[in-house]
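Thread title: Can someone regenerate the structure for this chain?

I was given the following input by a collaborator and told the matching structure tokens would be attached. They weren't. Posting the sequence so someone can regenerate them.
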Amino acid sequence: MDTQRIHPYENRAVLKEYYAKYLKDVRKVKDSTVKHYFDALSYISRYLKEKNLLKRDIYEVMDLKELAALKEILYKDPDFH
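Best answer:
Regenerated them for you:
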């Protein structure tokens, strides 16, 4: 098995597909809810990119500690809504 990490940009489609499947199959949400979740992730990605905290989007984050740190930054930012 190749232990090299998959480049985050190559991983994006797989993550999106898996997350949509999870939301539909496990959480039993409607397609419209899945769309709203992805819209929110796009908004968060744009916001973090504007703050120079991401290069492209949230899908490049490969570490839960980094994800938690970004969440903390967003929660503390009064301009984030």
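The mean pLDDT is 89.
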